[in-house]
Amino acid sequence: MTDVYTLGEALGVVSSGRVRHESEARLDVTGPEFNLAIALARLGHQCAYLGKVGGDELGARIRTVLRGEGVDVTDMRVAAGARTGLLLRESRVGGQPHVTHYRTGSAGSGLSPGNVPIDRIAASKMLHVSGVTAALGRDALEAVRAAVGAARTAEVMISFSVEYHPDLWPSVREAEEVLGELACHSHLLFLDQDELDLVKPALTPEREVVVNRGVKGASVRADRVRYDQPVIQVPIVDTSGSADAFVAGYISAALDGLTPQERLHRGALLSAAAVTSASDWQGLPVRAELPSSR
């Protein structure tokens, strides 16, 4: 049985310093759901990933990585003639990287409701979706809605990461409407502290709301009790994949039946592992590398 079914856009990422001055760069592949699927598979969970890639070298690399990490890619689609999307991530001294998206018309943004396998989602323990995929265009949004609808009908647990990126949305109002709708359908809700106002209707006592509080760590309110977890201090190489890793760690612990405090701790462990690597996912641990008590 599939533990977690997820869908989204995987894309290439070129990382460098300020491009106008750099002569070298690093090429990798990434994506919120892509990173999460790999993290869960490394921890021994059965994870299935749905996405579209182009019939190009980046698309081939994405499929190769997912297969090599043990992720179920049965439902992956290759869009012949389309290109796989790309991010340009430029590091900035003392600040967050500057990210430029090259994904308009990409294969991944063409994910549609017809690609969503209703029966496969219905047979899973959990569905995970993100606000990034919902922001890619009308077809991608309807694909997310179709997946959420299938999970609700089959009473499958729904996990949702808000992941609001202003440059992907036409307006804040549209983002609030869509993100609020998806958040209200979720059982597990992940968001940053500055995203709370975007999904106010979903912040109810019966929902498990996990909040990333930046340097203050993370917290969750579950069964009307708040739990807190400080950041685990490690040498930082790149923070780009830390949020995806945290969500994966939390979901993994939830699947293992651990307490809310233990879920936060595993999320923090994976987040710490992610920031010690230049890749969003290559530094993530396998289950044998987790502390035995967790």
Describe the protein's topology:
Elements: E1 4-7, E2 11-16, E3 26-30, H1 32-42, E4 47-50, E5 52-54, H2 57-68, E6 77-79, E7 86-92, E8 95-102, H3 118-122, E9 126-130, H4 131-134, H5 138-153, E10 157-161, H6 172-185, E11 188-192, E12 208-212, E13 218-222, E14 225-229, H7 242-255, H8 260-275
Parallel strand pairs: 1-4, 1-9, 2-7, 5-6, 9-10, 10-11, 11-12
Antiparallel strand pairs: 2-3, 7-8, 12-13, 13-14
Q: Can you describe what's shown?
A:
The chain has eight helices and 14 strands. The chain is an alpha/beta fold and 294 residues long. The protein has a domain at 4-9 and 33-53 and 112-286: Ribokinase (UDP-N-acetylmuramoyl-L-alanine:D-glutamate ligase), CATH 3.40.1190.20. The strands form three sheets. An eight-stranded mixed beta sheet has the order 4-1-9-10-11-12-13-14, with helices on both faces. Strand 7 (86-92) and strand 8 form a beta hairpin. Helix 1 crosses helix 7 and helix 7 (242-255) runs antiparallel to helix 8. The chain is globular. The chain starts with a strand and ends in a 19-residue tail after the last helix.
